[in-house]
Amino acid sequence: MKAKRSKLTHIDPAGRPAMVDVSAKAVTAREAVAECRVRFPADVAKQLRAAGLKSAKGGIVETAIIAGTMAVKRTHELIPFCHPLPIDGCRIAADWHDEKSLRIECAVKTTHRTGVEMEALTGATVAALAVYDMCKALSHAIVIGPAKLLGKRGGKRDFGVSP
């Protein structure tokens, strides 16, 4: 049996790119949570742990949180068909996932006609990029990813874990 394919939402009937019209949708509370990992070479991870995730440039996690939050608020400027949204809440956390990987989680809330999945993904990935920037002097072998949506609530359907 063939799986039903969803229609791409950012394509108009003529096949051209288009922003989705959300004017007929109900305004509801919406949340999304995404994560991104940053994997360090073993010696770099050991050095960062010993330094309490601080560098000569400052606090690595603190800088990542600020960068990720700024990115959440500007997602519509970065992703062409994202709607500008009022962000009601944004929380970014970073902690060691294992000996060599930092896990960054971004949770975003709004009350609007469209969801905040892209904002959560943008926040998590830009926070990871900030970590890379803060640590690149130690190694260029740092790997960013995977990035993924963990869950969303509100709108037509919920997905994954409860944010």
Question: What do these coordinates show?
Answer:
- With 163 residues, this protein is of the alpha+beta class.
- It has a single domain (28-154), classed as Molybdopterin cofactor biosynthesis C (MoaC) domain (Alpha-Beta Plaits, 2-Layer Sandwich), CATH 3.30.70.640.
- The protein is built from four helices and seven strands, in the order βαββααββαββ.
- The protein has helices at residues 42-50, 60-73, 75-78, 117-135, and strands at 28-39, 54-55, 58-59, 89-96, 101-112, 143-153, 159-160.
- A five-stranded antiparallel beta sheet has the order 4-5-1-6-7.
- Helix 2 runs antiparallel to helix 4.
- The longest helix is centred in the C-terminal third of the chain and has 19 residues, at 117-135.
- The radius of gyration is 18 Å and the shape is elongated.
- The mean pLDDT is 92.
Could you name the key traits of this structure?
two-stranded antiparallel ribbon, 163 residues, 30% strand, 28% helix, five-stranded antiparallel beta sheet, 7 strands, Alpha-Beta Plaits, 4 helices, alpha+beta
**Topology, number of strands:** 7
CATH superfamily: Molybdopterin cofactor biosynthesis C (MoaC) domain
Distance between the termini: 33 Å
Number of helices: 4
Shape: elongated
Structural class: alpha+beta
Number of structural domains: 1
Percentage of residues in strands: 25-35%
**Uncertain segments:** none
H/E element string? EHEEHHEEHEE
CATH topology: Alpha-Beta Plaits
Average pLDDT: 92
> What proportion of the residues is helical, as a percent range?
25-40%
